[in-house]
Amino acid sequence: MTATIPAQTGGDLPAHNITISEFGAMKALAILSQSGKENAGVRVFIKSGGCSGYQYGMAIDDRELDGDTIVHDRGVKLLVDRMSLPLLRGSEVDFVENMMGGGFTVHNPNATSSCGCGHSFRTDGAQSPDGEGSGGCGSH
Known about the structure:
It comes from Deinococcus gobiensis (strain DSM 21396 / JCM 16679 / CGMCC 1.7299 / I-0). This protein has 2 helices and 10 strands. The chain is mainly beta.
């Protein structure tokens, strides 16, 4: 069973919500329109690894899997699997541009530490899961 939740931008957000910034939504909608996938959304997920323990992942996905939470925010469909949801509660997907180019990032209030490149994080200061993630930012 999937859960579909409209995001509430501004005001108090439900604890499970994940949102997307205005600039992030603009970039995501442009990418989604070029994907050729009908009814596609942005899948946001967490996997073990990275220099801080967990690593963010994002992909264009036109599948709604059993157990997914689906959030509609600023015209973008965000899909989050049940294993990633607890680690992404209250997070905002954003798009940042810098001298190295640009890309999507996650502003995660659950992260207690992160690596310098912003692609991986730790939630409680504990060791990386399964002993992974001991390398530097280049080891993603």
